[in-house]
Every structure is written in C-alpha cells, then in structure tokens.
Amino acid sequence: xxxxINHLQARLAEPxxxxxxxxxxxxxxxxxxxxxxxxxxxxxxxxxxFPKNGEWHLVFIERKSNNNKDRHGGQISFPGxxxxxxxxxxxxxxxxxxxxxxxxxxxxxxxxxRLTELYxxxxxxxxxxxxxxxxxxxxxxxxxxxxxxxxxxxxxVFQHPDTRQTTEVLLGNQIRLPNVPYFNVMGKVLWGATAxxxxxxxxxxxxx
Length: 208
Fold this sequence. Notes:
Elements: H1 3-12, H2 19-23, E1 41-52, E2 55-63, E3 76-77, E4 80-82, H3 90-102, E5 110-114, E6 118-120, E7 125-133, E8 147-154, E9 164-171, E10 175-185, E11 188-191, H4 192-205
Parallel strand pairs: 1-7
Antiparallel strand pairs: 1-2, 1-4, 2-3, 2-8, 5-7, 6-7, 9-10, 10-11
C-alpha cells in the first residue's frame, strides 16, 4: 500500500482532532450552535482518494442548484446522502451514494476510517464522513437528476495556503454571511460542512 495511504489509515485509527480542526474552516457563528437534536437525520459521505497523473486526488460533486428538495443546491460536496434502513450502516450509505452520484464501483473501495461527525442545522442532517481509496483512476459519471458536475481535485491543491480564502455567502434570498472561509478549488467555492470536514482531513493527514 502507498506510504501516504498507510499513514492516513494509521492516523484515522488514532483519536481524531474533531471540532477544533473543523472550526478552522467554519464561520464564527458555527461555534455557538447547539448540539444536534434527537430528531436529526443521519447521512453518510465519502472522501475518496484515487490516483491520477501520479498523485492522489479527491472526488467532489457540484450539486444542481435548481433542485428544490436539496437545501445545499449548487454547493460543492463529497458524494453522499441520507441513511436508508436498507443500508444497515452509515458506511454503506456513503458507498451507495457514491455509486449513485458519481458512478463509482463501490465494491472496489478500500475503507480507511472515518472523520468526526458534523451537524448541519439548515437541513437537520448529522453527517458521518468516511475516508476510503481505490488503486485505479475511476471513470466517473454524474447522476443527471442531482449532480451538475464532478470535480477531480489533486490533494496537493489543499496544501497551498492561497487555496484558503474568505467570501460573503448568501443564504436563501435574505441572509448574508460575511467573512466565510472557503477553499478555492478550480475557481469553485468549497465552503460550509464540506470545508469543515476537509479541514479535519488535512489535520489528520499531517498537512496542518
């Protein structure tokens, strides 16, 4: 197994840095949110590493902005979605959703561990992030109903300080959040819960 992957697997088996690592890429208001309510819906997402052009990449999706049922429409996120009873386990949710959203053969994924769960108030989801890898370059295909596009991003992009920026985010039609931290990924704004998960992944990997 690749040295980086071995290292990542070992680090994921240790105590996680958790909320403090997540907060590095969160708006200040995030620190004052209450804990998840008992009726929070469960979700699983997959941070998938894959080799391409001699370096490790991660796959993200750009959600369609015209899906009224998606409270995160237009955002960049890891493949993932809502837990279904047939899944049996949240890890299976992440794998199933990755298959549905980007066409990944989930039977080829080697799981490395999981990151700290994260509650998203706007959609009432308690998200469980899982980390895995495949040893080949997948031919991704977007789910037409929900996915506007697929981003294959070199992990090295997140190691550059210039990738971290701040912007103003418009929530709905009225609420404006100033000074929101985000990752500038190929000109796309990767912010919110996914940026927080990505922040913890960087700390776990030793890049922070």
